């Protein structure tokens, strides 16, 4: 079980980062399409689990959490996903994207202090300051390349305009703020209705009714409804989605491959179909990495949800920090991995390399910021555990 969970997290999430970077480096304005495909596939995957068939036709199974608390979560989750993918259109390199999204502790602490009246230990405050400094260093590591003078680069002024990069950082910042509010809303929901559990048979009193046993696990319910209900929010974006699909269909190279046909199909005693021995298919090249990105997103999310139901919050944080570090290494050194993927998927020579569109970043500032963000994240989580232990000891006394 551990092997499958960690395989989903490291294999799925790291592969997702690689394919996402490849698609956005060629089509940086395809953020809405990427987000929609991810929502659609995850919803399609969860639909059979949450539907039941009656004599009147299919209907949704009863939920562990009412629909109303999900609505706010869905709206925030939709905006967060859309903004994070849209930021690639503003010259945000994948390494900066990964590290900046890890800086949500700052927003979480501020919102916890302002909204929930929480108090934090010295270790937590120091850790958040470290995360903040790390995010600042990471942001500056790429802004130096985007602000290069036009005379030193063959790129257009739009590609070297520092205001475009600043707009992307602002978009990621807004997404972090929404993430903080989503965390507060989820905490409130789980406090009232119970946290996600690893199996559908568990309940707060240690037993489950027959109707509860027939329900999907809580984490599966949460994952499904956050994506399924979010599909309806894409209706205003249909014109944008159509234009993105049109751009891929008409402005991208195509991949050609053949599918062999069984001899039983190509040869009949009395009918000559003239099908040949294979079917030749030609599709726009970006659809293959888009498909890989969507599938790996499903694996990544499933792995993270499974992990949260099996281990403590500290262990989850440590695993995800290591995963983000692995994604960062793959992003910086991802050309080698992508060349292997391209060779076996028929995409070799079909597009630019990983991160080639965005130019170089200052490696020392990038890695210094990454280390500070990850160390601060671990320190913050350790501070939470220490605070909980102190409160428990005081209650026992």
TrEMBL record:
Membrane topology: Multi-pass membrane protein
Gene3D superfamilies according to UniProt: 1.10.3730.20
GO molecular function per UniProt: UDP-N-acetylglucosamine transmembrane transporter activity; UDP-xylose transmembrane transporter activity
Leader peptide range in chain numbering: 1-15
Coiled-coil segments: none
Keyword Membrane: yes
SUPFAM superfamilies xrefs: Multidrug resistance efflux transporter EmrE
Keywords: Membrane, Signal, Sugar transport, Transmembrane, Transmembrane helix, Transport
Localization in the cell: Endomembrane system
GO CC list: endoplasmic reticulum membrane; Golgi membrane
Transmembrane listed as a keyword: yes
Residues passing through the membrane, by range: 33-53, 74-92, 98-115, 122-143, 163-185, 328-345, 365-384
InterPro entries according to UniProt: EmrE-like, SCL35B1-4/HUT1
Location (main, coarse): membrane
Record's protein name: Predicted protein
Organism in which the protein naturally occurs: Laccaria bicolor (strain S238N-H82 / ATCC MYA-4686) (Bicoloured deceiver)
């Amino acid at each position: 079980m551990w092997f499958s969970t960690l395989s989903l997290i490291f294999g799925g999430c790291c592969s997702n980062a690689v394919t996402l970077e490849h698609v956005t480096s060629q089509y940086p304005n395809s953020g809405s399409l990427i987000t929609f495909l991810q929502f659609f596939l995850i919803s399609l995957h969860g639909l059979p689990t949450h539907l039941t068939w009656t004599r009147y036709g299919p209907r949704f199974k009863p939920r562990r959490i009412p629909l109303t608390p999900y609505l706010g979560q869905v709206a925030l989750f939709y905006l967060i996903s859309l903004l994070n993918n849209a930021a690639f259109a503003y010259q945000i390199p994948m390494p900066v994207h990964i590290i900046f999204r890890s800086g949500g502790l700052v927003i979480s602490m501020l919102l916890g202090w302002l909204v929930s009246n929480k108090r934090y230990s010295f270790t937590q405050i120091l850790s958040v300051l470290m995360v903040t400094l790390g995010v600042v260093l990471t942001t500056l590591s790429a802004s130096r390349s985007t602000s290069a003078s036009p005379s030193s680069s063959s790129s257009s002024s739009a590609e070297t305009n520092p205001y475009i990069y600043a707009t992307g950082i602002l978009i990621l910042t807004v997404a972090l703020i929404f993430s903080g509010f989503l965390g507060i809303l989820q905490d409130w929901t789980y406090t009232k209705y119970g946290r996600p559990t690893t199996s559908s048979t568990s309940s707060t009193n240690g037993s489950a009714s027959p109707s509860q046993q027939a329900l999907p696990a809580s984490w599966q319910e949460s994952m499904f409804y956050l994506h399924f209900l979010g599909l309806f929010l894409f209706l205003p974006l249909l014109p944008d989605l159509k234009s993105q699909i049109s751009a891929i269909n008409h402005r991208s190279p195509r991949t050609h491959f053949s599918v062999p046909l069984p001899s039983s199909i190509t040869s009949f005693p009395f009918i000559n179909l003239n099908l040949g021995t294979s079917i030749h298919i030609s599709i726009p090249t970006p659809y293959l990495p888009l498909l890989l990105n969507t599938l790996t997103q499903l694996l990544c999310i499933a792995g993270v949800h499974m992990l949260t139901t099996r281990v403590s919050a500290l262990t989850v944080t440590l695993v995800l920090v290591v995963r983000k570090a692995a994604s960062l290494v793959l992003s910086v050194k991802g050309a080698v991995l992508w060349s292997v993927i391209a060779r076996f998927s028929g995409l070799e020579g079909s597009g630019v390399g990983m991160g080639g569109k965005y130019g170089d970043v200052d490696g020392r500032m990038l890695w210094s910021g990454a280390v500070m963000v990850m160390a601060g994240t671990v320190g913050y989580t350790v501070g939470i555990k220490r605070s909980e232990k102190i409160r428990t000891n005081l209650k026992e006394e």
